[in-house]
Write a structure and sequence with these properties.
heterodimer; A: 290 residues; mainly alpha; MetI-like fold; 2 domains; 12 helices; globular; B: 387 residues; alpha/beta; D-Maltodextrin-Binding Protein, domain 2; seven-stranded mixed beta sheet; three-stranded parallel beta sheet; 20 helices; 16% strand
Chain lengths: 290, 387
């Protein structure tokens, strides 16, 4: 570890040089923008739009005007994460523990294949699948009439699960893959039935992948913009959409900054809560998340 | 793989052999690119990434290898853009926008890379005030000649005696409706908004654009399209929030949904009305009797335009009457240039969608500059969308 090398000058310098790019990246692209939007969030909208200096909390007082965007995000993002998890886990389980070598390679390729096409184009495809000439037309044939899918929360949810599923599958797959199979045999030998083995051995041991996958999907979903914009028809609004609107249409940078900071705050709280809840449950295990 | 087969990809050994010959100078660069297939590959890549087009092509013209334009959906003839590239070597990059506010926001943020943009009449004075647009050197636009243009559509391009923009098209903002689906015969904005909640429930689209969406909601109450009066705007907001749950979508690109039959009615501009009616006759274009918007769009050059020479060449090319007439054929918006109109066929110049009856036109208003920057209109539109 670096701490043991304190007497070693050149090594220290090498460490510093190796860390320099990351530090610069961190300062320039994370800390500085955060400072800028914090300052902006305390300002006022300039007459023609943009920012003009001021010191006011008026922007934060106006936050309830975007309540619906926050509630949409805070219901659909966790829900999307949960559905992804429920679909991804059995798939990852099958891939890691049940599939033969060849099926595994084939199925893993299938999970990756969608990434070969731009996410934008794949989401556009859903506009047609969910539109009047797509699934609703098929359902009409079996007598379900006048069903509208596109531009509804359901459409957004379908798009979310479709788009984010691979991000959930891979971390879970990796943690299940690494799982020591002799532990399952041991559990069996000691008299546990398969269900008990799953809940007491497999599930806890795959928890790191599960947590990584959920956080990955949840964090990205909280900032999602594209799927609600395309499949929600401008009607199912996420905070991301409200932000784009505030910066690129109404040009209210201070209010946009306040909304953005609030979103960051909510995410930090949500993630801290999630991790501490899990931490309490898994106190006796020494499996770290990262 | 046969060596004589022209379509077969070159083998690795053959490629190396050709490369050596090229390095030794025994074959020309052109022969090398041709025989290895790299030439074709570069040409394909170049159409996507103009900087790959190579020095040879860019040197042929003095305007550079590309020109970037910010415009509106369904508002140009791709064949014309291809022609320009063929003539000058400059590839045309197009960005499409849904509202003037969006264009303004991008220009305010800076770094757009646009050489030409297409602002609407009421925005130009604000661009001048904010120093985001450059005055035009008309000597570099020989195809522009004031005397051929309709005066009222040319005027907004001049601010403080300086010409900042030359006219592209003019048109109206009404609504399209699918007569097979909507059997009543709405002729007013009042009927339009009422249908959102009744016969056309879940099937109506409005623009993602404060000017037309709020403006036409104001017409429901008989207020001015341009009102910034807080009380009148409050009424408009109430109406918008009231219909929002029953709308199909809020989007300025409404053609795809109208064509697929998902949407039955939408706030619409002249050319989209014409394009839809041309392909699907039951889709009609209607101007609200109470009035609404009359507008003219312009070609202009942003202050920060990186390729000013290309911008002038491109604008001058597009306002050439022959080229402009092809544009009109493609998009169906009338032009304020009489030379171009003279080249149009009768079925266009007598088309009531392009040239509505005078009494309908009389009720229309030009958008007012104040609506672009009014904070309340901006916030109401944002609230309506976030609701």
């Amino acid at each position: 570890m670096a701490a043991t090398q304190t007497t070693n000058g050149p090594r220290k310098r090498v460490t510093a040089m190796l860390l320099l790019p990351t530090t610069l990246w961190f300062l320039l692209l994370l800390v500085m923008p955060l400072v800028v939007i914090t300052v902006y969030s305390l300002g006022e909208r300039a007459p023609a739009g943009g920012y003009q200096p001021a010191l006011t909390l008026a922007q934060y007082a106006n936050l309830p005007a975007r309540l619906k965007a926050f509630t949409n995000t805070l219901t659909l993002a966790p829900l999307g994460t949960l559905i992804c998890l429920l679909i991804a886990y059995p798939l990852a389980y099958f891939l890691a523990l049940k599939a033969s070598r060849r099926t595994k390679a084939f199925l893993l390729t299938l999970v990756i294949v969608p990434f070969w096409t731009s996410f934008l184009i794949r989401t556009y495809a859903w506009i047609y699948i969910l539109g009047g000439r797509g699934i609703p037309r098929l359902l009409e044939m079996i007598g379900i009439e006048d069903l509208r899918l596109i531009n509804t929360p359901t459409a957004v949810l379908i798009g979310i699960v479709y788009g984010y599923l691979p991000l959930m599958v891979f971390p879970i797959y990796v943690s299940l893959e690494k799982l020591d199979k002799s532990l399952l045999e041991a559990s069996n030998d000691l008299g546990a039935n398969p269900i008990r083995t799953f809940f007491q051995v497999t599930l806890p041991l795959s928890a790191p992948g599960l947590i990584t996958g959920s956080l990955l999907v949840f964090i990205l979903l909280m900032g999602e913009y594209l799927i609600p914009a395309l499949l929600g028809g401008g009607k199912v609004f996420f905070v991301g959409n409200a932000l784009v609107d505030l910066f690129l249409q109404s040009r209210n940078w201070p209010f946009g900054s306040a909304v953005a900071l609030t979103l960051v705050g909510i995410m930090l709280v949500a993630i801290t809560l999630y991790l501490s809840l899990l931490g309490r449950q898994r106190r006796h295990q020494d499996v770290s998340i990262l | 793989m046969s060596k004589n087969d022209d379509n077969a990809p070159i083998s690795a050994e053959q490629f190396m052999k050709e490369l050596r010959r090229y390095q030794k100078g025994s074959i020309s660069r052109r022969h090398f690119l041709g025989v290895t297939g790299l030439g074709a590959a570069t040409a394909v890549m170049a159409s996507a990434m103009p900087m790959l087009a190579g020095a040879g092509r860019a040197q042929a013209a003095t305007i550079g290898d590309r020109v970037s334009i910010a415009t509106w959906p369904n508002y140009y003839d791709p064949a014309n853009f291809e022609q320009f590239t063929k003539d000058t070597g400059a590839a045309v990059q197009v960005s499409v926008f849904g509202s003037n506010e969006e264009m303004l926001a991008k220009l305010q943020a800076g770094g757009t890379g646009w050489d030409v943009f297409v602002p609407t009449n009421y925005t130009i004075s604000t661009y001048v005030e904010l120093d985001l647009i450059q005055p035009l050197d008309l000597s570099r636009l020989p195809n522009f000649n004031e005397k051929y243009y309709i005066k009222r559509f040319i005027e907004p391009g001049t601010v403080n005696g300086k010409v900042y923009a030359v006219p592209k098209n003019w048109g109206t903002t009404g609504f399209v409706l699918n007569r097979k689906k909507v059997t009543s015969n709405p002729t007013t904005w009042k009927e339009f908004w009422d249908l959102c909640k009744t016969d056309a429930k879940n099937r109506v689209m409005v623009h993602d654009y404060q000017l037309t969406t709020i403006g036409n909601a104001l017409k429901y109450f008989g207020y001015s399209f341009n009102s910034v009066d807080p009380k009148e705007l409050a009424d408009a907001e109430k109406l918008l929030l009231d219909v929002k749950p029953h709308l199909f979508a809020i989007n300025s690109d409404y053609q795809p949904s109208m064509r697929s039959g998902d949407a039955w009615m939408s706030v619409a501009w002249t050319g989209d009305g014409l394009q839809l009616h041309r392909d699907i006759p039951e889709i009609d274009y209607v101007l609200g009797k109470e009035g609404g918007e009359l507008w003219s769009d312009f070609y202009a050059i942003p202050k920060e335009a990186p390729r000013v020479d290309a911008a002038y060449a491109f604008i001058n090319f597009l306002i050439d009457p022959e080229v402009n007439a092809k544009e009109v054929h493609a998009h169906g918006y009338p032009v304020p240039d009489n030379r171009t109109t003279a080249l149009l066929p009768k079925e266009m110049t007598e088309n009531p969608i392009m040239y509505p009856a005078q009494e309908l036109l009389n009720a229309l208003e030009f958008g007012a500059a104040v609506t672009l920057t009014d904070p309340l209109r901006a916030e109401i539109m944002a609230r309506f969308k976030a609701a």
